[in-house]
Amino acid sequence: MIHSSTPYGFFKDTAGEVAASKGYIYGGINNDWNNIQDCDEYDPDVWTNRADIPSPARAQSAASTILNKGYIYYGYSTSELRDCDEYNPNTWTNKTDGPSPGKSDPTASTINNKGYVYTGLSSGGRLRDTDEYDPDSWANKTDCPSPIRDVAEASTINNKGYIFCGSGVGGVTFLRDTDEYDPDSWASKTDAPSPVRISAGASTISNKGYVFCGADDSYIPLQDCDEYDPDSWTSRTNCPSPGRYELAASTVESKGYIYCGYDDINMLNDCDEYTPDTWANKANAPSPIRGYLVGSSI
């Protein structure tokens, strides 16, 4: 189950940078349930196939943007990965692996030109890990608050990281938790609105966080759109049909975009644009249809 986040319209988060002008989606799972290596660029409202991500094909990764370069972290291929790969359009470079353990379904954001990877699922269970990436070195940081979790979402608002929702102990307890990371300390904040959810998308628009879609604790795909203006939540206009989870999200020039996903029957290629508080259907992403992907903006 994946989460994909893209926190800011200034990339993927860093306040003060030039607004990101293009969205990118990386990897995922196609409708035959095979991992893919696709990288596709979205320059509203035109899609272009770009250089594939490095081997192995993967899903259930995390992504962020640091100083106009995209990074994808961890994920799942035939086992949990520690890979870190840098995308400097249109070139990929393998970078230093993230700290052990390998994990799927982490989430990530960028704060002050450093990437942070939060939580995830290892072969030993769900995690509370926080790891800092300052290209090209890694450092372990203070663990996220309890509970352990995966398939959460992340964004950055005013130079603080936020993680939202996810799946807790045993993968049977779905969450509404919101936790704030001000490197290197954590604080619990107001829970997201009902329902509990996993595998949503998240981005930041004009210093507010948005959580899009996801699945509830019956694995029913959601269309919810909720706005987080620290520390208060407001329910906004639902995302367009179909309800979906395992999607990607990013912000491009102060508009939010949600890409692809899974509607509990098929993978999708939908692309929808959010200009608070209005939605518009946009050009579909290229084939293959996919879910369990990640995205960022550069």
Give a short account of the largest sheet: 5 strands, mixed
* CATH architecture grouping: 6 Propeller
Whole-number tally of structural domains: 1
Shape: globular
Helical fraction: under 10%
CATH topology: Neuraminidase
Report what the structure shows.
The protein has a single domain (4-297), classed as 6 Propeller (Neuraminidase), CATH 2.120.10. Helix content is 0%, strand content 47%. It has strands at 4-6, 23-26, 29-30, 39-43, 46-50, 62-66, 69-73, 84-88, 91-94, 107-111, 114-118, 121-122, 125-126, 130-134, 137-141, 153-157, 160-167, 174-182, 185-189, 201-205, 208-212, 225-229, 232-236, 248-252, 255-262, 267-275, 278-281, 290-291, 294-297. The strands form eight sheets. The protein has a five-stranded mixed β-sheet, with no helix packed on it. A hairpin with a 2-residue loop joins strand 12 (121-122) and strand 13 (125-126). The protein is globular.
Supply the key terms.
Neuraminidase, mainly beta, globular, 298 residues
